[in-house]
Write a structure and sequence with these properties.
Number of strands: 0
Largest sheet: none
Shape: rod-shaped
Strand content: under 5%
Structural class: mainly alpha
Order of helices and strands: HHH
Oligomer: single chain
Distance between the termini: 47 Å
Radius of gyration: 23 Å
């Protein structure tokens, strides 16, 4: 997952021309904040679409393993 996030960050491309008007009107710090917000929104979208489903699948698989292990223990310790 970390590699996928690093790849996304490395591949993210800022288009400075999109911020020229903001730079002229709002100044450097406000424009910098807008650039940060655009990057954060893109990263959040990537995580939501690509990383979260992987996490959910991993958790589901681990829950199955835990359930199976507990059922196995219950079978071994069951008193007839």
């Amino acid at each position: 997952m970390m590699k996928a996030i690093q790849t996304f960050i490395s591949g993210y491309r800022l288009v400075p021309e999109n911020y020229l008007e903001s730079l002229r009107g709002s100044g450097f710090f406000q424009t910098l904040y807008q650039v940060f917000q655009a990057f954060k929104q893109a990263l959040d979208g990537f995580i939501t679409e690509h990383i979260n489903p992987d996490i959910i699948r991993f958790i589901a698989a681990e829950e199955i393993k835990i359930r199976d292990a507990l059922e196995s223990i219950a079978e071994l310790t069951r008193i007839d």
